[in-house]
Amino acid sequence: LENILEINDLHVSFDTFSGEVQAVRGVDLELKKGEALAIVGESGSGKSVTSKTIMQLNPSPPGRIKSGEILFDGQDLAKLSDKQMQDIRGKEISMIFQDPMTSLNPTMTVGKQIMEGLIKHQNMSKPEAKQRAIELLNLVGIPNPDTRVKQYPHQFSGGMRQRVVIAIALACNPKVLIADEPTTALDVTIQAQILDLMKNLQAEGDTSIILITHDLGVVANMAQRVAVMYGGKVVEVGTVDELFYDPKHPYSWGLLSSMPRLHEKQDDLNAIAGTPPDLSNPPKGCPFAARCPHAMKVCTEHMPEHTNVSETQSAACWLLDERAPKVEPPEAVKA
Ligand code: SF4
Ligand code: MG
Fold first, then answer.
1. What is the pTM of this model?
2. Which of 276, 254, 258 is nearest to 266 (CA)?
3. Which of 168, 192, 194, 246 is the most buried (most CB within 10 A)?
């Protein structure tokens, strides 16, 4: 499969009063045409910063791309000006955030907000755009779209607002949809409906999805591939089956062992003892070493490179070096 997006050795830092925070430290990722790729990891792992960097949505300053490239359709998004990026945002690449209110304008009807992109990017006339807005509201499952199109965000429930945000994101048929915890703020029933909606859209169109989440149930339900991030790095990547049934990185083992049973609510992937590394002074070796039950001397001294374990799976861990002792994953992870 062809890549629609390719991130190469991306480094992103934030300059703060207490110094440089290296939020993203050499991330390589590819998104294939038509796939849904999940990015999982604790808060502070770099998953949101990475996805916002694709859209150039990190506040800058203090955020800045130090190095690396983000190839989309042959062009490097990391080098585009704000003006050039405006033509990509919402047209070629759209983003949905956790809280729909942050992306909706409370003083504008939802119809107008959907129409904006259609008029700007698709050269539609006003009546055409309005007709399309009604179709889109219908597509995302909002009843009475003819009436709803004239209403304001506060007249919608939380779940309905997120549907509106999705309608706006889809208005221009984006090639890539980035969804950052899109259902976290919603109750379980609405959550399932929104995920079904995204799944159908992915299956029907040729939209590729990057889904950022800490909910492994959502990953299993939605994605074909998973990237696990930790300490500003991708520590393991593979198909959903590989990650769930044969994970190789001790951090992935921790995640899967701490996976809540079905219908159990959990706020974040924090069940692993210890705290993530301080990225204003990152460790020179493996970022997980301080919390890893299998850490060896080499781990704290040298950064592990990715080792391929199949055509689709790789992990950055010294245990995959042929000289390392054989370590079995914990019982809870074994199928
Ligand atoms: Fe643990 Fe070492 Fe592997 Fe890091 S490289 S996850 S510290 S075994
Ligand atoms: Mg986040």
1. 0.91
2. 258
3. 168
